[in-house]
Amino acid sequence: MRFSTRSVYGLRAMFVLAQHYGRGALSVSTIAQREAISLAYLEQLFHRLRKQGLVDSVRGPKGGYVLAKNPQVIRIGEIVRALDGDLLRMGERRRPVKDGHRSQQVVTRVVWERLQDKLAEVLDETRLSDLTTASPNHDARIEHKYTFHI
Fold this sequence. Notes:
The structure is a single chain. By secondary structure, this protein is mainly alpha-helical. The radius of gyration is 19 Å and the shape is elongated. The chain has a domain at 5-87 and 127-134: Winged helix-like DNA-binding domain superfamily/Winged helix DNA-binding domain (Arc Repressor Mutant, subunit A), CATH 1.10.10. Helix 1 (5-19) packs across helix 3 (39-51) and helix 4 crosses helix 5. The longest helix has 24 residues, at 102-125. The protein has helices at 5-19, 28-35, 39-51, 76-84, 102-125, 128-134; strands at residues 55-58, 64-67. 19% of the residues are buried. It is built from six helices and two strands, in the order αααββααα. Strand 1 (55-58) and strand 2 (64-67) form a beta hairpin. Strands 1-2 form a two-stranded antiparallel ribbon.
């Protein structure tokens, strides 16, 4: 089972915002540079996340994105669904059933359905804040590169 690139990059971006939570907006370019993600691709991901109410955009010189909710409330399942739709339909490909192979199809379908249920359960139990506390050595300080002179 693999997460899509969209989910992996989206989770990485949300992780950065969670670490910066309560300290203002971060620009997409700052996150893109820090995480080595294409700026254009990251903008698409933030568009999806904003539509689902997970991030808010902030305009102005110190603008960018902030989490729309506390990281203790945002579930990883919400993020994955916002980016990829219904949770990761994985595994079983629909193939024509050959004579004598019907039991194999039933067995694999039951196993995949149970795996998907467990996957959804884990993703929905895991909060964004759980990821930030699990990675204490990750540098949480992000500063804007902008200076203003009047």
